[in-house]
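Re: that chain you flagged

S.,

Sorry for the slow reply, it's been a week of failed gels. I finally had a moment to sit down with the sequence you sent. For the record, here it is as I used it:
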Amino acid sequence: MLTTPVVRALKRDAEAEVHYITKKKFTDVLINNPFVDKIFTFEKEITEILSQLKSEKYDYLIDLHKNLRSARLKQALNIPSKSFNKLNIEKWLRVALKFDMLPKVHIVDRYFEAVKFLNLNYDGQGLDYFITDKDRKAVELLPVSCNKGYVSLVVGGAHYTKQITTDQIIKLVNLSPLPVVLLGGKSDNEKAKEIIKSTGDKAFDATGKFSLNESAALVEGAEKVITSDTGLMHIAAAFGKEIVSLWGNTIPEFGMYPLFPKGDEGKSKILEVKNLRCRPCSKIGFDKCPKGHFKCIKNIDLGSVF
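Prediction finished late last night. Pasting the structure tokens below so you have them in one place:
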């Protein structure tokens, strides 16, 4: 999601043929993107598609991941390449010593450092996400109560310390003036069942029932999106939705807050517990709170969400 402004610039402004390399599980994010000419996917290792990539005879490799896998790919292809600064030292200082040397810019701005040699700059138009009319039919499967508007609420997240708690979601559902559609994967089913048990027909459980692009359609159709730091948060930003994001162990200063087109930044509201000494405790997340109290999420004031 966060690389899409670079892809757009490469295709539209540099008039390049753009091929995208990613893990197979992320295909849906790009499958409908008109700025991507070809997608190469692999399950575990880049060696699965290396011979195909070599046969393409690329002019440049733009590395917006900058990990060991992409380093091996650059070495194997042996073509001109550029990458961006991951700020690993600055992030470590912020996490371990609470010393702030992070630049006050979004990660998209840092991604564009990798294509400066092509005279490309961020156009200020936000992120891209494309779905089809077939995906949008998912909205028709929502209960009749959602016909006059609903709120999409993201139940899960990649790590527990990023997730909104069950008790908080129950409170949010009960506070909502509109029906709430619970979004997430199959791993969020039990959490969603507990929420439905406590809120009745005020919420609809969509966890694990829809594909990623169908879930994106449910985000697109919502009046408001409530989420933690998740991929669906960025999809909501791409659709220009009004977003309230709750931040736990990660912080917006890492540069991955919702990115809207210039002029629409007011659609994003970030809720977090500032000045908590243990926060951030990780640049990614944990399966449980290292301190045991989980104050970074539990102490967020929910009263202003609606």
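What I noticed first: Residues 189-199 form the longest helix (11 residues).

Talk soon,
D.
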